[in-house]
Specification:
The protein is α/β, with parallel strands linked by helices and 264 residues long. It is 38% helix and 20% strand. It has one domain (12-263): Vaccinia Virus protein VP39 (Rossmann fold, 3-Layer(aba) Sandwich), CATH 3.40.50.
């Protein structure tokens, strides 16, 4: 999925036109893959039918399913319960059947109505393999960054996190990034990877917290990947930027003394 295509100095119109073409191709790829995977297809259409859940698309399911199958994580945290919960669980079960290794899967939800709906809709034979937790949300700070997190998230050595919640606003104000991933990384000595589903505030924050080389954005798929980080990967050290990291974010960097005469 990853490619090195760069948009350069294309106009906004041309850029968006190219992205739209790429997204149509991504949708075609995802649809074909799902149609050829009978069990995955049945799960998607069985639970999509008359479902109140919204937010994920076929391309999301494609990316999420393949990520779980490739990474084969053992401790998985999902931020935001929905149809994606079924996709993650199905992929985890396939991994277990192949490797014999078990897993812990927790899905967090902040909305009581959605939580109740999810619990009623989840089949008994599937509910045994996932713990869905209803939780209030609070704010967490890391350096100059602030975002939302689920207060009841279990303390576990997560190695894969899917970021599609909580709501990006807090008390009806502002737009925040997700901090569940950050809180997990703050404590982790081992690498955590994950997927961010169309949450640009989180993508921007994580790119600055961990460095741009740790986050990859896929415009055709409208998701971003977190490429394995732990507590040693924060570019902040005692609330200061680590040496030479700050410059990564600026293309117009000079070593000469500042000169603003051209602005007069």
């Amino acid at each position: 999925m990853k490619n090195s295509f760069k948009f350069g100095k294309l106009t906004c119109f041309a850029r968006q036109k190219i992205i739209n073409i790429m997204r149509e191709r991504a949708k075609t790829t995802a649809t074909k893959f799902i149609d050829e995977n009978a069990e995955l297809r049945d799960i998607i259409y069985r639970y999509c039918k008359d479902s109140k859940f919204v937010g994920c698309s076929l391309t999301d399911y494609y990316v999420l399913y393949n990520a779980i199958r490739d990474v084969k994580p053992s401790n998985i945290l999902e931020c935001g319960t929905g149809l994606s919960t079924y996709i993650i669980l199905h992929a985890l079960r396939e991994n277990k059947n192949e490797t014999g290794t078990g897993f812990n899967f927790v899905s967090m939800e902040q909305d009581a109505k959605w939580y109740s709906y999810a619990m009623k809709r989840m089949p008994t034979e599937m509910s045994r393999d996932v713990e869905i937790i209803l939780s209030d949300v609070d704010l967490h700070h890391h350096g100059m960054f602030v975002g939302t997190y689920y207060k009841k998230t279990p303390d576990m050595d997560w190695n894969f996190i899917f970021v599609d919640g909580p709501k990006q606003t807090f008390n009806g104000k502002d737009r925040f990034c997700n901090m569940d991933f950050v809180r997990a990384a703050e404590k982790s000595c081992t690498k955590i990877c994950g997927i961010i589903d169309n949450r640009r505030a989180s993508v921007m924050a994580y790119s600055m917290l961990f460095g741009p080389d740790k986050i990859t954005y896929y415009p055709a798929w409208n998701v971003s990947t977190i490429n394995g980080v732990c507590k040693d990967d924060f570019v902040f050290d005692d609330s200061r930027w680590k040496p030479f990291v700050f410059e990564k974010y600026f293309h117009n960097t000079k070593i000469s003394a500042p000169n603003m005469k051209h602005l007069s």
